[in-house]
Amino acid sequence: MTSRNFIFREIKPEDNEQLATVIKSVILEMGAPKIGTAFEDKATNQMFENFQKPTSFYYVVLHKNKIVGGAGIAKLDNVKGDICELQKMYFLPLIRGKGLGSKLIETCLKRAKLVGFKKCYLETMPYMEAATTLYRKNGFVNLEKPLGNTGHYSCNVWMIKEL
Asked: Which residues pair with 70 in a beta bridge?
């Protein structure tokens, strides 16, 4: 299976249910807590609606017409300046290790820069080692403390990248 077998496209309203299932299944697979993570976010069940702002967008990854992952960008809440957040990047095991994570990050960050953002922030958890490695490979560096107020108090790895 090559990366040609996958399609990136913007989220549609009918993607909400499938995407919520993907996000929640990855959180459970990783042994992450349900509270203080995207698992309990209301936005997880309403991803299309959540990304309908002028400075936000979300891409889903499709394989054989099924959603197998995704990631999005939104302005980081409660922070001054032009800082966005890479949000809800989750991939099912089927598509990991194929270079799609870097391609999706690159796609998101290019558009974030076009929208006018200068930096991109993200949060993750220490035992999501493959994700942390992916973010570092794509130029994100660790921060000492969180920015903004995402409500994800179980995520205690904070990273940022200049765009």
From this structure: 60, 90
